[in-house]
Specification:
Layout: E1 2-6, H1 11-14, H2 17-26, H3 36-46, E2 50-51, E3 53-57, E4 63-67, E5 69-74, E6 78-83, E7 96-97, H4 102-113, E8 123-130, H5 134-145, E9 149-162, H6 167-172, H7 176-192, E10 195-199, H8 207-221, H9 223-228, H10 231-246, E11 250-257, E12 260-270, E13 273-281, H11 291-305, E14 310-312, H12 319-323, E15 327-337
Parallel strand pairs: 6-8, 13-14
Antiparallel strand pairs: 1-3, 2-5, 3-4, 4-7, 5-6, 8-15, 9-14, 9-15, 10-11, 11-12, 12-13
Length: about 350
């Protein structure tokens, strides 16, 4: 097994998009946030420190593993290694390793980090790792076995709906009150206004222009969303939307009421999962129609119609997600300290 170290973004040239994503498809955490597209776009816009990524191949050149890390200076903890994408805009992260090489590559990573040639570091801080991740299942045990200090905490929760086969079957999973509320809100929006929902298509729409509409709704939703969507973040959102639209992974949906955009959802369609990433709505218009809930209901219907397995609200435990029938799943923060 051969290990290569990359200290700049040439890692995205050394590993092609096709072979990166093919390895990801076989890895434990096959999520959109680990695709070549997301990782490279995140790095181009965020570039928070020094690249420190490890790539593993066999003697014939076959790709076996990718450890996409970067190094930055933590004000309190000093030099820190973390996963590319960590943490604000990537909801699930992990290493990308073929299943049969998980233990071998994780052990090599730990041994290399403790060796003389390795980059200076005080802690390895891995954010948003789910329970099935390589980092959570494999790396923690290996680090403990090597006598390293390991801290694992629940960092956040992602409410997820396990989707049944039909819309009626989904409604039957809800309590009587919530089932009635969803039906009532849909009927009211459809009967008392000109209500339409559409999903942006790379072939039929100007994605960048549609993203401007989404960002306007996002910024108007709440003051903290306006602060979040600064110029750097806006550039990332518009760029990644165009990239994902070309791959048919983007689900940018709008609810129009009386021909005016009332609500929007920036979502993903990936690996049999419909994922709600961010949202926006006009707080001054059509509040009586609950446009956000109506749009989510339409998207759940869409996901069920496509035969998806899950409807994932991603990180954040807002109460409405649980009223829609979601169940919490944990994501963890893993910290390994350099002795």
């Amino acid at each position: 097994m051969q290990r290569s170290i990359f200290h700049d973004d040439t890692v995205f040239e050394a590993v092609s998009r096709e072979e990166w994503n093919a390895l990801l498809a076989s890895s434990a955490t096959d999520v959109i946030f680990l695709t070549w597209e997301w990782q490279s776009a995140w790095w181009n816009h965020m570039y928070p420190g020094d690249m420190f990524s490890l790539v593993y191949r066999d003697a014939a050149g076959k790709l076996l593993g990718i450890i996409p890390l970067f190094r930055f200076e933590d004000e309190q903890k000093g030099p820190t290694l973390s996963i590319i994408g960590c943490e604000e805009v990537s909801d699930y992260l992990d290493f990308i390793i073929a299943p049969e090489y998980e233990a071998e590559i994780c052990a090599d990573l730990l041994d290399y980090l403790r060796s003389a040639p390795a980059l200076s570091w005080n802690q390895l801080q891995l954010c948003n790792v789910p329970v099935q991740s390589i980092a959570y299942r494999v790396l923690t045990d290996l680090a403990c076995a090597k006598g390293l200090s390991v801290q694992v905490t629940v960092q956040d929760r992602c409410p997820v709906i396990a989707l049944p086969a039909t819309w009626d079957a989904y409604l039957d999973t809800l309590d009587k009150k919530q089932r009635h509320e969803i039906r009532r809100k849909l009927r009211r929006a459809e009967s008392q206004a000109d209500t339409q929902c559409y999903v942006v298509s790379d072939q039929q729409h100007d994605v960048a222009a549609q993203m401007e509409s989404f960002i306007a709704l996002h910024r108007s939703s709440r003051p903290e969303k306006d602060v979040f969507m600064d110029e750097r973040m806006k550039g990332f959102f518009i760029d990644i939307a165009g990239i994902l639209a070309q791959r048919d992974w983007l689900q940018l949906s709008f609810l129009e009421i009386d021909r005016r955009k009332a609500a929007a959802l920036f979502s993903f369609s990936y690996n049999q999962s419909y994922q709600i990433y961010n949202s926006g709505y006009d707080p001054e218009l059509y509040g009586q129609f609950s446009p956000g809930i109506v749009l989510i209901a339409y998207c759940i219907q869409c996901a069920i119609g496509r035969g998806y397995k899950t409807f994932d609200f991603l990180r954040g435990e807002e109460e409405y997600k649980y009223r829609m029938g979601a169940k919490p799943t944990d994501v963890h923060e893993l910290i390994i300290r350099n002795p």
